Sequence to fold (86 residues):
Amino acid sequence: MFYTDDNGNVLNIHTELNDAFDKLYDILDKMTPEERKAWYIKGMYVKPLKYMQEIDNTTYIIRTNFNENSTSTVYDTVERITSKEV
Fold:
């Protein structure tokens, strides 16, 4: 992978991220179109976040789901939950 400036000159930019993308492109390039499609579809559906924490012999399991139509941010929700009086 390479980058060019506005005049078409190749820029010498090399990062770990570029290396990771190059490896990914090599892997995808060796796949058949069907394998590549299956790889993309598998990556589209992220597993829900699940967090487990034990406090005083009680195990708390936190799972998340997100409302795509929500007007509040995750920050707003955490702020609301943590500011409630117990």
Observations:
- The radius of gyration is 22 Å.
